[in-house]
Description:
139 residues, alpha/beta, Immunoglobulin-like, four-stranded mixed sheet, 8 strands, 23% helix, globular, binds copper (II) ion
Amino acid sequence: xxxxxxLILLIIAVLLALPVMAGAMCPGDDEEEAxxxxxxxxxxxxxxxxxxxxxxPVSVEVSISGLNYVPEEVTTDxxxxxxWTNNDSVDHTVTxxxxxxxxxxxxxxxxxxxxxxxxxxxxxxxxxxxEMTGMVTVR
Length: 139
Ligand SMILES: [Cu+2]
């Protein structure tokens, strides 16, 4: 009688102690490490997987002003979106020299965006003002 009562107490003690031991073995630090500085990089690693290895979704802005593309040349990674905004009072276009993309008329204050998924050099011009030229280089 005495023995089995002790044994039961011992078993209960062990059972009570188990969660504490488990807690000691894997401290709950995991949750504390993550958030603060990883917020901005959060979405980057998850996105690709199937398509090409380098796929950094970024966007690059080009202003159209004073009959110029500013900056005239941009270099970016595959998958980048280039956004042209017409800050002139006259219409312009963003037209690839090889016709692979064409904005059509972009009026004052309007934008055109194009996603570059292939590496290469993309010279373009304004169909209304052929002397206006620019270049997108995709790594
Ligand atoms: Cu133009």
